[in-house]
Amino acid sequence: MTTIAPRHRSSTWLALAAAIGLSLVLTSCADSSVDREGTTVRASEAEKSIVDLVERSSEAIGGEWRVSLGPSVEACGEGVEDRVRYVYVLERDGSPESAERDIRAVTELWEQDGIEVFDTETGGDEPLRGVRGKGGPTTSIGFDAYPARSSLSGVSACAPGRADDLAPG
User: Fold this and answer.
1) Fewer Cβ atoms within 10 Å of its own Cβ: the N or the C terminal residue of the chain?
2) Distance from C-alpha of 90 to C-alpha of 154, rounded to nearest angstrom
3) CA distance 130 to 106
4) pLDDT at position 79, please?
5) In the chain, at which residue ranges do the beta strands (DSSP E only) sit?
6) What is the mean pLDDT of residues 128-144?
């Protein structure tokens, strides 16, 4: 279980940003360029796969989502210049009354896709909940069901390519 203990409410957004950033930094692409059938994933497939998963997750939850980031291409780790991954983040206004239902919806979807799911919770008197996943069609995916703002963030499998060559002009 991931624990983030903000000092007070105003640092909740900082904790959220840190959690997303940390999950992206800790994501390793060492073995993720090969799909379940043992074939190499192309960059276009990696991008399509993560966009599809994040968007299906948002549909399972419902509500009006907006793109916060991406899909953006980046090097697949520090010092890795010949492999890329895609990051895609959606956000919507929070819905505290549906947080448990939303978490169950994405958990079911992700488990059906072969993703291993982990519950997350911040510290403090009023902990904020979410879930993270890895495996299946993604290197990592997360859903934060926070009262003010919910977010879905996904990182694709790594694929051969150079971020500079694949980034939009």
Assistant:
1) C
2) 9
3) 10
4) 85
5) 66-75, 83-93, 116-121, 129-135, 138-145, 149-155, 159-160
6) 93
What are the phi and psi torsion angles at 43 (to 5°)?
-60, -40
Q: Give pLDDT tens digits for 34-60.
A: 544 445 789 999 999 999 999 999 999
Q: Exposure of 144 by Cβ count < 10 A (0-12 exposed, 13-18 middle, 19+ buried)?
A: buried
The two structure tokens encoding residue 36: 């379940």
* Token output for 70: 């991406």
Position 34 scores a pLDDT of: 52
Token pair listed for 92: 């919507």
Overall residue count recorded for the chain in this entry: 169
Longest CA–CA separation in the chain, Å: 47
